[in-house]
Amino acid sequence: MLSFFKKNTFTILYTFFLGLMPLLASSSLSYWIITHEQEVHHFSTQAWCIAFLLACFSMAFALTPTTFIALLSGYFLAWKALVPLALSYWIASYLGYKIAQLIDGGKFLNILSEKPKVKQILENLQKDEFKIILLARLSPVLPFAVTNVLFSFSGTKLKNFLSAGFIGMLPRTILSVWLGTQAQEIRKLIEHPSEGSIAQFFILGLIIFSMLGLGYFIKKAVKFD
């Protein structure tokens, strides 16, 4: 175990960084948006294009949570935000996957594969990887950037990762944009993003469905003939 951590120190630290950064960066961005709300309301089309381009990188590097970006987009742009937002998610997914691939270079997967039982579990999981990716993306509690890294490290096929991930993100994206359109004040939206029984019920449903589905496929993968 100690040898595993030594060989993957940078990889593990990078994953930890991705899990921590959204809290720090979103707090700073929230303050700026609250104090410059009127300026954002008057953004030009070009300014919004730049904002979504920056969001691609900020989400890929875990500087801003995807739900946070969707809420703000819905608040300022309403349903017009859905297409550029979905495209931004797709690009951020690709960047996160490729960056993790460059950092790790396959070492993480190779070390895990040295153990026969672990290798068998990984191979079993890969048989259902499309469904697993879709379920992971459905859950609002699984960090976007961290799952990008984990799927990249585990050798997930890029085609499955992008297509299943895109489909899985749609329900929570639509919900977040809708919540943004319903908000009356930007501060209230940021501080209480999922206020309301309908939103909470839907979020809870996504979490339960995702966790049950992932639990089923993990249980299935660890069973050996």
Automatic annotation (TrEMBL):
The keyword Transmembrane helix applies. InterPro entries: TMEM64, VTT_dom. Residues 65-181 form the VTT domain. Belongs to the TVP38/TMEM64 family. It is a multi-pass membrane protein. It is found in: Cell membrane. Keywords: Cell membrane, Membrane, Transmembrane, Transmembrane helix. This is TVP38/TMEM64 family membrane protein. PANTHER family: GOLGI APPARATUS MEMBRANE PROTEIN TVP38-RELATED. The chain crosses the membrane at residues 12-34, 46-71, 77-97, 134-155, 161-180, 201-218. Its main location: membrane.
